[in-house]
Amino acid sequence: MRQLSITATDWLLQAKGNDWSLFASVTNRFNYLRLTLPTKEYLYAEGEQELGQSDRGVWVLGVFDHVEQLQYFLALHNDNPLKVPALKIEQSWPVVAYQEQSLMDYPHYSGVYRVGFKSYRVTQEIDGYRVEYIDGYKAALLGVLESEVDACLALYSHFDSRTRGCKMC
Question: Which tens digits make up the pLDDT trace of 26-44?
């Protein structure tokens, strides 16, 4: 069983519209954004790609039904960033674009999470979100799921079952 402490995050309101809100939080290693929409919450991170390296990266940590799920993932990420399969995206920080009270653009749950020769890939398709696990040259389809939330939870479930008991994770 994991020993995980979930504490309230100091979210600062950055912007707000009729049906969305954008919050920010900063820790010693990462900057976080939380985009709240009527039916889901997005969590983004920006920080060091590797501890002690100057290169920085931007990731989609997940998409959730409610803020409690988001806080759980954030606690996992704060405890050890390797516990959360974050999808690397090629966008500059901050990733959410807005103008006054209008939300212009934001990254959806798609991208690649890579560790060594193993990776996960989430791609948006016409009929949903395709989630794949890739080990070397072999790819396994985890499913084409209807929503981003389902894709996020399927990826994490597979990732967690693989890494449970791993001494390095």
Answer: 988 899 999 999 999 999 9
